[in-house]
Amino acid sequence: VRFQSCDENKKIHFGSSEPEDFRVGEDGVVYAERSFQLSAEPTEFVVSAQDKETQEEWQMRVKLTPEPAFTGASEKDQKKIEDIIFPWQQYKHSSPLKRQKRDWVIPPINLPENSRGPFPQELVRIRSDRDKSLSLRYSVTGPGADQPPTGIFIINPISGQLSVTKPLDREQIASFHLRAHAVDVNGNQVENPIDIVINVIDMNDNRPEFLHQVWNGTVPEGSKPGTYVMTVTAIDADDPNAQNGMLRYRILSQAPSSPSPNMFTINNETGDIITVAAGLDREKVQQYTLIIQATDMEGNPTYGLSNTATAVITVTDINDNPPEFTAMTFYGEVPENRVDVIVANLTVTDKDQPHTPAWNAMYRMTGGDPTGRFTILTDPNSNDGLVTVVKPIDFETNRMFVLTVAAENQVPLAKGIQHPPQSTATVSITVIDVNESPYFVPNPKLVRQEEGLLAGSVLTTFTAQDPDRYMQQTSLRYSKLSDPANWLKIDPVNGQITTTAVLDRESIYVQNNMYNATFLASDNGIPPMSGTGTLQIHLLDINDNAPQVNPKEATTCETLQPNAINITAIDPDIDPNAGPFAFELPDTPASIKRNWTIIRISGDHAQLSLRIRFLEAGIYDVPIVITDSGNPHASSTSVLKVKVCQCDINGDCTDVDRMVGAGLGTGAIIAILLCIIILL
């Protein structure tokens, strides 16, 4: 039934005089509340519309008759078709004195979808009030007529009967807007076109459809009643403003039903799922499966269409269970001096979800390890605590450790949990004695000794110690590992070191006055172990080397001015057995002092020069006596080969002098000069 209120804001309540048989929805649609057989006589009842605020009421009588089957009867035997007369007049004001313009606005035509015909089905007859004086032709235009989708509506051009040719589907097209035209036989427009609106009345021909067939949600364990979980949503292709598209939700089943068969409820209009009972415990039930039903017709189980979906609710973990050690005492052992080895595995149980912060265990030492020799790591896969040695342990000092340890989760326990936050246990660790390597004391050992110590002399005793005081090692044996100059030997029993050659500080094996040798000490344990020690010999210098002249060769020119040769001394010894040096010429042969003179410039340098102005060109051996400052002094006579030549203006030897210097005789030199003259 259609009810038009002058005030669109009024809240109208519809009622039926026969509520047991008929119900009127909020949109005015009348529904049968039960199935019954209609007789030939019309069934009558009254539909009322009441203003909820003013209680004003309007009534309309409804007659319900069976729909006649199509028998092909003639037009006059069928129901009368309403005529729409050209022009359609609509008075928008109640005053009869106001003249209105001819208007082609008519009320919409309501046509139910999914009609079974027969087709074409006549809707209305359109005619002009001039059809008595003129021969007219009628046509209709618009989507559904001459525009896509074409041919749904047709009009008889002579009679003006408008018909529908097929069933309509409101979910595809909810309304059609057509225009009716009236022209004379010459095609001249007789009337202005009239607008025809055909509304497709919704039928409940679509079931609700969930957006997802399976919905997934989560809820923390221990949640209080009223905790929001998730929202499921279904849609209905029918009119959402009518009961055909108004959905209601409900839960059909819950699995499992522990601890209560009604752990959840659903808002029947919004689809929100919330908890209604306490007792969610992930350790007992990890997942719930709900079958959700959506029904249209506002959830009417008799007339509504339904569909179902599955809601899977996972109960998420909170830290409501602390880790608990599987034993009060754990045992382990470790060989002494070993580090980075696991000595004990601590195992715990935790009922929370594995590999989450509420399950992951953290271990710490609470006592028994004041020097920090141990640490506890967590195995990420097994959650075990791995007691690991991080500092060497000496069996001779500590033979056993008793540790106290604690385990707790990465996150604190949830509020209200009546459990201690951590679990404690004891770890007993036994240290195993092993055969350790002997060690020299001190290492390295420094010995100061003057060079020149003769072979066979006792230098020192270099011995080692065995740390295994509780094992039955009876003796240590010594041997030489490294002796670059092969100067030493060691007694294999008592470690006494003697020389096998004279110690020389100036040897190439001595660096910065230091000579290094390495020795080995081995025990007779099982297995045998050995240790090395370094003997450092600091050799003190003695004056065992005489100084030598440097350079060994020199050149001087015969000039009017003195031409000196700078010389110095080289002494492998060091202070005070080296410079300052004394330089002098020997008394014999007499020609040395007659031809040469030497002058000391400093403690390390002197100058040698010709005493006479002319000395035949040639190479001369000039002996020079050099004495160091050692106590006692050491001296030597070194020979300096001096080449004497005639020099050019630049101070360089002439070519003839070079030939002489090269060892050519006078005849050979004359022959070479003659050849040069002939060539010129």
TrEMBL record:
Residue ranges annotated as transmembrane are 659-679
Q: Does the keyword Transmembrane helix apply?
A: yes
Q: Name one GO biological process term.
A: cell-cell junction assembly
The Cadherin domain is annotated at 103-210, 211-325, 326-440, 441-549, 548-654
Which of UniProt's keywords are assigned here?
Calcium, Cell adhesion, Cell junction, Cell membrane, Glycoprotein, Membrane, Metal-binding, Repeat, Signal, Transmembrane, Transmembrane helix
Q: How does it sit in the membrane?
A: Single-pass type I membrane protein
Q: Which domain of life is it from?
A: Eukaryota
Q: Which coarse location class applies to the principal site listed for this UniProt protein?
A: other
Q: Name one Pfam family in it.
A: Cadherin_pro
PANTHER family of this UniProt entry?
CADHERIN-2 (PTHR24027:SF79), CADHERIN-23 (PTHR24027)
**Name assigned to this protein:** CADH2 protein
Q: Which organism is it from?
A: Syrrhaptes paradoxus (Pallas's sandgrouse)
